[in-house]
Amino acid sequence: MGDQKGPQPNWIEAAPPKGSFRSIFKWGDPHAYKHPNARLYRLLKEAFSLADDHFKVPIDDGCRPVAFDRPAKAVSPEQVTAIRQIVGDENVSAKSYDRLKYATGKTLEESLRLRQGEVQAVSDLVVHPRHKEDVRQLVAYCDRERIPVVVYGGGSSVNFGLRPAKGGITLVMGTHMNRVVQLNETNQTATVQAGIMGPDYEAALNEAPRRFQARHRYTCGHFPQSFEYSTVGGWVVTLGSGQMSSYYGDAGDLVISQEVVTPSGDLKTLDFPATANGPSVNRMLIGSEGCFGVLVEVTLKIFRYLPKNRRYFSFIFPSWEKAVDAGREISQGQFGMPAVFRISDEEETHIGLKLYGIDGTPLDRFMRLRGYPPYKRCLMIATAEGEKRFARNVKRCAKAICRRFNGLYLSGYPTRKWEPGRFKDPYLREDLNDYGILIDTLDTAVTWDRIHQLHQGVRAVIKLRPATICMTHASHFYPQGTNLYFIFIARARDIDDYTAFQDEILDAFQRFGGSPTHHHGIGKLFSPWMDAHLGEAQMAVLRALKRHFDPNNIMNPGGQLGLDLEGRHWREIR
Amino acid sequence: MGDQKGPQPNWIEAAPPKGSFRSIFKWGDPHAYKHPNARLYRLLKEAFSLADDHFKVPIDDGCRPVAFDRPAKAVSPEQVTAIRQIVGDENVSAKSYDRLKYATGKTLEESLRLRQGEVQAVSDLVVHPRHKEDVRQLVAYCDRERIPVVVYGGGSSVNFGLRPAKGGITLVMGTHMNRVVQLNETNQTATVQAGIMGPDYEAALNEAPRRFQARHRYTCGHFPQSFEYSTVGGWVVTLGSGQMSSYYGDAGDLVISQEVVTPSGDLKTLDFPATANGPSVNRMLIGSEGCFGVLVEVTLKIFRYLPKNRRYFSFIFPSWEKAVDAGREISQGQFGMPAVFRISDEEETHIGLKLYGIDGTPLDRFMRLRGYPPYKRCLMIATAEGEKRFARNVKRCAKAICRRFNGLYLSGYPTRKWEPGRFKDPYLREDLNDYGILIDTLDTAVTWDRIHQLHQGVRAVIKLRPATICMTHASHFYPQGTNLYFIFIARARDIDDYTAFQDEILDAFQRFGGSPTHHHGIGKLFSPWMDAHLGEAQMAVLRALKRHFDPNNIMNPGGQLGLDLEGRHWREIR
């Protein structure tokens, strides 16, 4: 805890009771947690004018057992029998707990509702396909019978992408379809079943010499914050970005070929890294969020695993403008890109230095002395990877640029302090929510020439709300732009009050030149902004593809990607 | 000429007569030529058992004036009047010469036919749109009236992509729509009208400080062999690759956003470098070869122009296998990629060393002495670009790898000898054709694990033909594979004999695991292989998009991309 003075909050450390709502909405490992440290705790108390007493008894902890009465919407008993015949009894469940669990992602809203025992859309039946052939038969059967199909990967969706708005079946990909099918060292690719979890995939690649008699060790290059609880298939269909995407590319960039089962038939794309044979169908499938079909296998680029070459560096800048200028200049410098690459605005820097345990240390005093005071200074953390001299040169060039923009070199220390917690921050949410404090994130893509208008515009909207913490960073860099990732901590009267606030932020993304999301996907949550964002003509193209792949709209119907809203709001679709 | 002994061939140096067939099929600048040097000339005489006398009087030089009688197929006089009203009289031509010129690309077949005065499909009317609005009105009008529309960029198509199989109008994009619309230095992008020619675009970027008050000079990074006679729009719609694509990316990788006018309406995609808002419609338009609509404007990535940082290097390997191994290892080395990057097989190396004037020099003797004899040795030429130390490190790492694979360092000399002629080789064709010798190229994409079977299989098919020279190189590198580019020099009984030979090579691409082309596009010529290559399911997706964008099939109908063949061969479609 660091700071042992004063009473300690009563953070929950026990694993959620089996069968409880909490066991569904809690992030990650049931036994793991990451409590706010003493500095963050103090900051929260100050920000929301709360006393220690407030943190004694959790409110709505969601520990009660899941129970609800919801008859199947779209699957008849005869159909259940038919489905059981396809995959075997042991791979089908109609238990309430399963129907809810696999219908639930990780939006704050879902978590708040489940704390109160409020159940929204659930699937009628949970099905665990054993292999491609099961998926083929299931999709063909469901298409014939008009049964909605939703695909569940790791369950980390933050956009209601798993919501079975019209009931039907949920396919759980990770139960059986979770293997590395092939490591092709000559082509430097790996073929995996879509349901493999991130850490299993990475471990297989790291251990390639032992597991596949490979000459080298490999890495997947994709490390989203949800890495530990997401599937490779999920990365691809939602267009995810990892924390090292600036160097390795976004999930979509890693895909060489795919096998997708759709109602209109199977597609298997080819494994050429580039070819001029018309528009790439492979690309069209990436980001389709379960609306076109079920991704069953995917072949991805892999990379040599060279952790010993990794270089760490970090800088503090006198202002956000200078940090952005340095970030852009590095991205356009033509010496390769850093891997981890993140700049934090003034408020995030202030809180980040607390979280990473730098606030109050000699490094903090050094920064203050050198003219980088709190609430002005902005932090950049970065690593460089790849071949040894390449990585060294990325760091060297980046340092030269940072100095030109008045950056003060902080060594690799802040990056190293950030690194161990990089997949753990989602655990903070349960602690905060236990005491009625909301924490959520929204992210948006932006070009360099609109970054300041977007940052200022969105921040102003968020800060209009009284006592609201708003931390912003850019963490995925391209020569042409970056993303802005907003983390906000607030209190809300009720769930509707919160979702209205969320809508205001998304409106601001639209108004100030951002996209509805940079790497969270659209799902259903962001669908109301799709028409205005892409425009009618582009939406019509997506809908034409939808009609081609899924003429009966059985694949993730009910607002996903904004394809079948037909003038309604996604919440109205049932 | 180099070697002045013996009689000189009577190569044509005069510009083709105005209005002649030759003025249409001749490559590039009417006054420019690149004759085979003495060594190549000797090799041709030997290979085809020809005496000097054979090279005295050109056969079928195509210098006669264009004349043919072909009534308009798809445009009535009333429709001509309507079209004149849209763009103005001065921007419409129904002259035979124009109808043929803008219907003709640069396939060997077209050139052979025109030498004999044989005219195949021509457009009914040539139209030079002035701006987007003209294109909009033209496309809307032609859609209403069911008039086919073909788009002409620089005319360098090598796949009958410009063939107006069903008549109609040809839009010439370069006449008016040839400007840089905007240089956005903050985002490091340029927006251009689709009809701008390569050199004009590159000059504008190189001179950005003067032309756009920019801080830096820029380069487009895309230098196909057709660079001097192709348009930026053409690069994008045909999925071209430049000679430095290994570093800068293929044309499709450079596209940030586009504006396309289609029969079903205009599309303007957004300028985010990456965003997770569903499948990328921007990507779907790339490579559509005029089948979906007319690309009118495109925004591309640009790069800092840093010629002083360029490094040259070249290696000779004891075998093709070693050259391939080194090429693959460099591509997978994670230190960045060379820009120019080419490995030549035994036969191309043999001829290349003659062409670059290295054969018979001290460097040649050095190679022989060190154990790299002709017909075994394989040449690699390369450059590195980008930031200074980055480029130096690419060269350094590549050298270390080449040495591991028994490569002998040849300094940058061979690359420098290759460089000045890099856009000039197409001029050789006219000289050879003038004396009945055919030279043509076909290229294919390949993964690393199939490169040898493909190279050997295709080469065997080509070498089955008596007295046929076959040179092969790989020149576009990816971690997962490369391309194989076959140049063959042969004699043929007649055009049908030649096209049958071409078909055999394309069959071999298919049989041995290549794609129909790596960067020549599909056009109509390669359309017979599309169904087998992509498979029915992928073709159905492309056709669904075609129906969406162009429900009446007015955009480049008659086999383009294999979309509307309906069981026929493209040559049958009229």
TrEMBL record, chains A, B:
<dbReference type="InterPro" id="IPR016166">
    <property type="entry name" value="FAD-bd_PCMH"/>
</dbReference>
<dbReference type="GO" id="GO:0071949">
    <property type="term" value="F:FAD binding"/>
</dbReference>
<feature type="active site" description="Proton donor/acceptor">
    <location>
        <position position="485"/>
    </location>
</feature>
<dbReference type="Pfam" id="PF02913">
    <property type="entry name" value="FAD-oxidase_C"/>
</dbReference>
<keyword id="KW-0274">FAD</keyword>
<feature type="binding site">
    <location>
        <position position="429"/>
    </location>
    <ligand>
        <name>substrate</name>
    </ligand>
</feature>
<dbReference type="InterPro" id="IPR006094">
    <property type="entry name" value="Oxid_FAD_bind_N"/>
</dbReference>
<dbReference type="InterPro" id="IPR036318">
    <property type="entry name" value="FAD-bd_PCMH-like_sf"/>
</dbReference>
<feature type="domain" description="FAD-binding PCMH-type">
    <location>
        <begin position="119"/>
        <end position="305"/>
    </location>
</feature>
<protein>
    <submittedName>
        <fullName>Oxidoreductase</fullName>
    </submittedName>
</protein>
<feature type="site" description="Important for enzyme activity">
    <location>
        <position position="342"/>
    </location>
</feature>
<dbReference type="InterPro" id="IPR004113">
    <property type="entry name" value="FAD-bd_oxidored_4_C"/>
</dbReference>
<comment type="similarity">
    <text>Belongs to the FAD-binding oxidoreductase/transferase type 4 family.</text>
</comment>
<dbReference type="GO" id="GO:0008609">
    <property type="term" value="F:alkylglycerone-phosphate synthase activity"/>
</dbReference>
<dbReference type="InterPro" id="IPR016164">
    <property type="entry name" value="FAD-linked_Oxase-like_C"/>
</dbReference>
<dbReference type="Pfam" id="PF01565">
    <property type="entry name" value="FAD_binding_4"/>
</dbReference>
<feature type="binding site">
    <location>
        <begin position="238"/>
        <end position="241"/>
    </location>
    <ligand>
        <name>FAD</name>
    </ligand>
</feature>
<dbReference type="GO" id="GO:0008610">
    <property type="term" value="P:lipid biosynthetic process"/>
</dbReference>
<dbReference type="InterPro" id="IPR025650">
    <property type="entry name" value="Alkyl-DHAP_Synthase"/>
</dbReference>
<dbReference type="InterPro" id="IPR016171">
    <property type="entry name" value="Vanillyl_alc_oxidase_C-sub2"/>
</dbReference>
<dbReference type="InterPro" id="IPR016169">
    <property type="entry name" value="FAD-bd_PCMH_sub2"/>
</dbReference>
<keyword id="KW-0285">Flavoprotein</keyword>
<dbReference type="InterPro" id="IPR016167">
    <property type="entry name" value="FAD-bd_PCMH_sub1"/>
</dbReference>
